[in-house]
């Protein structure tokens, strides 16, 4: 990110240091051909105010704590009813214009616009995901970070504010996040998150399938038991049917007088034919 020009209007640091309501600095013309640029001046002359606003991010790092990401409000740094920060900057050969408008007219309101220079002039920035800079601070921040990278990474690696926390005091997790951002590993992290989410979904589905399998196995065991019982009942039913047929055949044979004679007597004499119960007749009485 290369700053081209900066205009600040209504900032307390400029009023107190230079006695002016507005200041404009043309970095492109003042630093043409220079390899190293220094901003010098006595304490309280507004150097920090200028340096803090040389980035498109909606924050003044030296006013936002040791990590430059703490609580910050533009309303503590301005004094006019309508205040402006206008920064023209360049990234990857494309020129952008940031305009932050801070209103403090009884009701506080901040608008932020990011425009891109084209052959036809300036037009609102539109990211690949459809986000367009429409004046809201939320979309402005998304557009700036979509072009220049996250605020955290930029203010840690490319910008060092006063009283900035030293990089040596960062924890391992912080260093890993910075390196991942610098190396463009955000997409890989996103894929990793998607893979973890898919894994959680698969595990949940697998648990559901295991529970369903256990339920089906229980039902299968119940069905097998019922089938075995039914087979036993069918066997008993068939046996009862066969016994009934035999009993019916004997009954019919007795009715026809063809009952089977009993076995031979012990003395060898021919046994008498047993009268059939159905053939016995009751004598008629006159």
Give a description of the structure.
The chain has 286 residues and is an alpha+beta fold. 41% of the residues lie in helices and 18% in strands. The protein contains seven helices and six strands. The protein has helices at residues 12-18, 27-30, 47-52, 137-148, 151-157, 172-182, 186-255, and strands at 2-9, 22-26, 82-91, 94-105, 107-118, 121-124. Strands 2-1-3-4-5-6 form a six-stranded antiparallel sheet. The longest helix has 70 residues, at 186-255. The radius of gyration is 49 Å and the shape is rod-shaped. The relative contact order is 0.08. Mean pLDDT is 84; it is low at 276-286.
N-to-C CA distance: 142 Å
Beta percentage is 15-25%
The helix count comes to 7
Topology as a string of helices (H) and strands (E): EHEHHEEEEHHHH
Provide the gyration radius in Å.
49 Å
Provide the low-confidence segments as ranges.
276-286
Helix content: 40-55%
Residue-averaged pLDDT: 84
Output the structural class.
Answer: alpha+beta
Shape from CA axes?
rod-shaped
Task: Give a short account of the largest sheet.
Answer: 6 strands, antiparallel
Extended strand count? 6
Strand order of the largest sheet: 2-1-3-4-5-6
């Amino acid at each position: 990110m290369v700053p081209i020009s900066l205009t600040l209007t209504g900032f307390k640091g400029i009023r107190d240091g230079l006695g002016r309501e507005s200041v404009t600095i043309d970095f492109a013309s003042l630093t043409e051909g220079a390899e190293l640029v220094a901003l010098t001046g006595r304490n309280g002359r507004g150097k920090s105010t200028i340096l803090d606003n040389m980035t498109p991010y909606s924050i003044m790092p030296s006013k936002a704590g040791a990590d430059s990401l703490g609580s910050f409000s533009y309303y503590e740094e301005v004094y006019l009813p309508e205040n402006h920060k206008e920064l023209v900057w360049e990234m990857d050969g494309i020129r952008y214009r940031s305009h932050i408008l801070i209103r403090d007219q009884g009701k506080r309101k901040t608008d932020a616009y990011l425009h891109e220079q084209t052959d036809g002039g300036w037009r609102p920035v539109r990211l690949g995901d459809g986000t367009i800079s429409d004046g809201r601070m939320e979309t402005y921040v998304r557009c700036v970070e979509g072009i220049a990278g996250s605020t955290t990474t930029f203010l840690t690696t490319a910008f060092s504010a006063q009283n900035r926390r030293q990089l040596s005091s960062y924890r391992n997790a912080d260093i890993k996040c910075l390196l991942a951002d610098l190396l463009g590993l955000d997409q890989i992290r996103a894929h990793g998150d998607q893979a973890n989410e898919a894994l959680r979904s698969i595990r949940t589905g697998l648990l559901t399938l295991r529970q369903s399998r256990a339920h089906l196995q229980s039902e299968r065991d119940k069905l097998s038991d019922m089938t075995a019982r039914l087979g036993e009942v069918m066997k008993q039913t068939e046996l009862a049917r066969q016994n009934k047929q035999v009993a019916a055949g004997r009954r019919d044979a007795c009715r026809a007088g063809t009952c089977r004679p009993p076995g031979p007597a012990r003395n060898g004499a021919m046994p008498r034919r047993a009268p059939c119960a159905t053939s016995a007749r009751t004598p008629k009485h006159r």
